[in-house]
What we know:
The chain is an alpha+beta fold.
Amino acid sequence: MITLKEFVSEHYPNGFRADSIEMARLIGKYAQHTGHNLSKEKFNEQMHQVLADTLQYNNQFFFIPTTEPLAMLIDRAIDEGYCLFFYITFQQKHRNKLADIRIHSPEILKAILEQYFPYLICQEHYFFYEKEKNFTVTNNTNRTSINSFPKQVIRNELLRCFTNGNIIVSYTQFAEQTYIPSDEIKNFLCVNNEFVRQTEGCYTHLSFVDFGNELQNGKIIRTIVDEQIEKQGFANTLSPEFLNAIKEITENNPNLSPFAIRDAVYQKFLANDFLIKGNNITLKNQGKLTGSDLLRNYISGKDEVLFSELSELCDKYLGKFHNDYAIRIGNEMMIRIDADKFISEMKIKFDTDKIDKILAQLCPNDYIPLKAVKYFYNFPSVGIYPWNLYLLESYVRKFSEIFRFEIPAPNNQNVGVILRKNSVFTSYKQITNDAIIQAGIVKSDKNNIYNFLIESGYICRRCGIWTI
């Protein structure tokens, strides 16, 4: 005859509650299945043995047929050098084998480890082997707490991934070769300065960087940084002087990207006394200097600035393809009067009432593209400066009381819309969607939509894919 323990194991794989209602149902099911009615005393006696052999979790009892496969998985991983195991990752990587012994969730796994594996130290989200010396275990009878999050052990686990001479490892490879969740890996790499980003999602470690003659190179780099900061308030990692100072390091590490070289040099020689923001280095007590700060400092106090000047500054201090800084900060601090010149707001005066009335006639509804304004003969004079789309954009940005200017992205092509300040539209995407509807273009016709938005001045080719 099948025992009560065997019956529970077979018919309650997902656990059961030991309350009076559930017990009454269990007695009935057992009698119906076996044809054998247990007395209350006999049932209680056998159920006591069943409960002794089950796992209690979340007010339920689970019958685990064996823990031997789980023990084998853990022992093998420890023998292979793994130290740290997050429950969720361990359960996911061994899902099929754990399902065979009715472990279907990280929570059940944690409960089983706490109850049946006294040689493991279990924390809220992870567990590790007790003999791991990098941890200090508190005196706790439940053996479930440690004094701090195991940052040093995460570091060691990630370092194990650099194998067979491979000095560059991706997020995916870190996740595949450890029992640490991807999010935890990313969070750790964001705050740990030993791991240097090679490209997006790929990292190397400072120990793999050949710094050549560290003493000599360190002195040269520090000297260049100190001189540049004394001269202009910051040092720039793209300057010829800095690039020459790190020339040997760059040549010694042909497989590392310029970004990795830059960050490795900073961490090795400069991090104690300096801050870095992008390609600019400042003293720690000075604060980080952003690309926007550089341009604002350059523009401040000037009556006129050429866009080409700002663009050259961006190329020099921020790197190529950062002209959007020049456009954004130039528009923020000055009035743009043509494609290449910004002037101080003090040098021009607008008749706001007249200009807004003209714009209201041109824009009877919520918005019009800037390029929809074709003529300026009826606009009031602004002295020696002729009206054009650049000047009109600056006026709407800074002086109009009725309209504001919206763009999909900083651009040099007069792309954007003049939008009423009381408009119901709250995003550029809403505006372009409405424009498509008003033009009667079928939404599935992507090419026609794209051409319409470009030709009308809602988007430019550089920012068009983002806008559609």
